[in-house]
């Protein structure tokens, strides 16, 4: 446990997790087991492994590592604060109209930027075509639009992934705060 603690203090979250994973939990008393799980949760949170964090919380609740009061508080919090995630597929579909995928992801400024950029490319292509500059319309409008529109779609999907990750991070932060508070009250 001392080694894992040193790794944790040094910010070596993944190494600390591996070390904690080798500790035989079945041989510990209740408070020590709770302390180890709390440290593991801290490492998972700091390393951005939010799915594993929530799995570990669920396992700790099911196995009785956390006390009844904390389990009840966590269940109440998790039930009343579900993650409102967004779908990457919906963002991709909405990005057929440049910027709409970003609006869906909660990034309106980026959405307006993509809408303006793609709108300008379309306008330039149409102006070139109407002026009889067909090659220019194809190269300047069509090919550039293919590039900017593809970038718009990829950026919208990335924005949704960031939105979902941030929602998970906030939820894990609140859960970790509750666990740490309970752990500090035991000591």
Q: What can you tell me about this protein's structure?
A:
It is a single chain. This protein has helices at residues 2-9, 13-21, 30-46, 50-62, 68-80, 88-94, 100-104, 108-130, 134-186. The model has no long low-confidence stretch (mean pLDDT 88). The radius of gyration is 25 Å and the shape is elongated. With 187 residues, it is an all-alpha fold.
By DSSP (H or I, 4+ residues per run), the number of helices equals 9
Radius of gyration: 25 Å
Number of strands: 0
Task: Characterize the overall form.
Answer: elongated
Strand content: under 5%
Distance between the termini: 17 Å
List the uncertain runs: none
* Secondary-structure element series: HHHHHHHHH
Mean pLDDT over the residues: 88
Q: Mind describing the biggest β-sheet? A: none
The secondary structure category is mainly alpha
Task: Give helix % range.
Answer: over 70%
The assembly state of the depicted protein chains is single chain
List the helices and strands and how they pair.
Elements (H helix, E strand, L loop, with lengths): L1 H8 L3 H9 L8 H17 L3 H13 L5 H13 L7 H7 L5 H5 L3 H23 L3 H53 L1
Helix pairs in contact: 1-2, 2-3, 3-4, 3-9, 4-9, 5-9, 6-9, 8-9
Short description:
With 187 residues, this protein is mainly alpha-helical. It contains 9 helices and no strands.
Keywords:
mainly alpha; single chain; 0% strand; 9 helices; 187 residues
């Amino acid at each position: 446990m001392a080694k894992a603690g040193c790794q944790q203090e040094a910010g070596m979250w993944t190494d600390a997790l591996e070390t904690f994973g080798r500790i035989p939990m079945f041989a510990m008393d209740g408070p020590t087991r709770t302390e180890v799980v709390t440290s593991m949760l801290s490492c998972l949170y700091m390393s951005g492994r939010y799915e594993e964090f929530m799995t570990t919380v669920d396992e700790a609740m099911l196995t009785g590592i956390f006390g009844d009061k904390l389990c009840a508080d966590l269940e109440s919090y998790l039930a009343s604060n579900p993650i409102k995630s967004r779908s990457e597929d919906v963002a991709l579909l909405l990005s057929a109209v440049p910027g709409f995928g970003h609006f869906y992801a909660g990034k309106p400024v980026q959405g307006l930027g993509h809408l303006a950029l793609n709108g300008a490319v379309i306008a330039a292509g149409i102006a070139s075509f109407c002026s009889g500059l067909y090659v220019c319309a194809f190269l300047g409008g069509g090919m550039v639009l293919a590039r900017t529109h593809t970038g718009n779609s990829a950026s919208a999907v990335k924005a949704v992934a960031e939105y979902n990750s941030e929602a998970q991070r906030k939820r894990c932060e609140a859960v970790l705060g509750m666990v740490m508070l309970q752990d500090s009250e035991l000591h």
